[in-house]
Amino acid sequence: MKELEFDRHRRLRGSDALRAMVRETWLRTEDFIYPLFVVEGENIHREVPSMPGVFHVSLDGVMNEINECIELGIKSIILFGVPKDKDSHGSQAYAEEGIVQQATRLIKKEAPEMVVIADTCLCQYTDHGHCGIVENGKVLNDPTLDLLAKTAVSQAKAGADIIAPSNMMDGFVTAIRYGLDEAGFHDVPIMSYAVKYSSSFYGPFRDAAHSSPQFGDRKTYQMDPANRLEALREADSDVNEGADFLIVKPALSYLDIMREVKDRHALPIVAYNVSGEYSMIKAAAANGWINEQEVILEKLTSMKRAGADLIITYHAKEAARWIKEQ
C-alpha cells in the first residue's frame, strides 16, 4: 500500500505533558479582576437573585471578601456601589462619604496591596437610572462630563488605584484625565470602558446594581451591537484622550472586536465577562446540562486567546481555585 503523505498534528497532543508544552494561551489568577457590589447598611451578605454566588455586601463584610481574594491570589477588584439614596444628578457618586469612597478607604487601609478599581458612572446613583444628566428625556453629554470628573477625583482622593469610567459619554476620558491632573492625581491611571455595546447581556448586573433605566434605554450612548468600525473609532479616541487600559464589554459575543482592538493598540486590553454571560452558565450548570468548570475555563481562555490581558469576571474566585488545584 502506498504510504499517504500528510501532516501529523496529533503528535503534539499525545499526553497531558506534551499538550502543556505547546499550549499557547494560559490563564493566570493575576489576570482576574473580581467585581464587588458594596451596599449601605450592616450585616448584609445577600445573594443577587439572578447571579448565583454573587452577593451584595455591606461595609462590615467587605474585608471578608477581600481576604478571600488575597488567599486565592486575586490581586485586583472593581468596586460598584449601591446607595440607599438617589437623585437626578447622582450626587452619591461623588460624595466624600459615598459607599464606594468608604469601601475604598477601608480596603486600602486594611489591605493596601489590593488594587482597587473604582467604576466611575452615575447610573446606579441617579433616580432615573441613566448614566448622565437628563433634561426633557435626553441624556446630556457635556454637563455630565463635569460630574464624571468630580466622581473620579473623589474616588482617587479615597485611595482608588485605578479609575474605570463606564458611561460612554463623548470626551469622558479627556474630562476625567483633566480633572485628575488638576487635582494632583497625575499617576492614577484610567481603565476606560472604551468599547461598550448596548447589550442584552447586562440584565443581571442591573439587578445587582439597581441601575435599570426608568425610561427609554441607553442606545443613544452605548454602541450598536452590529457595528465593528465604530468600536475601533471609540478605542482610538480613548487612546488619544489618555486612557491607560481599554475595556471591551461584553466579552464573549465580541471576541472579534477584542482581537482587532488588541492588534491596533499597544495598551493593556481588558475583557469584561458580563453578568448575562455568567448567569447563563450558572443556569445551565444548575440544570446539569454542562460541565461547569470546563465551560468556565474554556470561556475565560477564549478571552485571553482573543487578546485580553486582564478579565473582569464574576467567576474569578472559582476560576482561581481551579487554577490553584491544577
UniProtKB/TrEMBL annotation:
GO terms for cellular component: cytosol. 5-aminolevulinate 2 binds at residues 275, 314. Its EC number is 4.2.1.24. It catalyses: 2 5-aminolevulinate = porphobilinogen + 2 H2O + H(+). The keyword Flavoprotein does not apply. GO terms for molecular function: porphobilinogen synthase activity; zinc ion binding. Pathway: Porphyrin-containing compound metabolism; protoporphyrin-IX biosynthesis; coproporphyrinogen-III from 5-aminolevulinate: step 1/4. This is Delta-aminolevulinic acid dehydratase. It comes from Jeotgalibacillus salarius. The lineage of its organism: Bacteria, Bacillati, Bacillota, Bacilli, Bacillales.
